[in-house]
Amino acid sequence: MAALKAxxxxxxxxxxxxxxxxxxxxxxxxxxxxxxxxxxxxxFKSGSEALRGDKETSVTAASIRIRRRTDVSVAMRxxxxxxxxxxxxxxxxxxxxxxxxxVCEVING
Length: 109
Fold this sequence. Notes:
Elements lengths: L10 E12 L5 E25 L2 E13 L8 E5 L2 E10 L6 E8 L3
Antiparallel strand pairs: 1-2, 1-4, 2-3, 3-6, 4-5, 5-6
């Protein structure tokens, strides 16, 4: 089994999970808390235009490769600086068991 080369993991991203919090006046709000900073390889797969809520918006698909972890789920997001990715699927690489493929969409706005 070949190891995932560190050089191909060229971006430092942060995996975050939704957490309950409170705003300044004590009202409940949903926040995103850090799970782990990880090295990743981000590849954009496609882009398209779509109507969502009577508003035209762009949808950008990406594949993010990271070292294998057991704590990543579709309820999480990946933050790469100002770009936020919503995880749509977590796919283990059956051929190379040392990595995961995260199928993602860029969140606009």
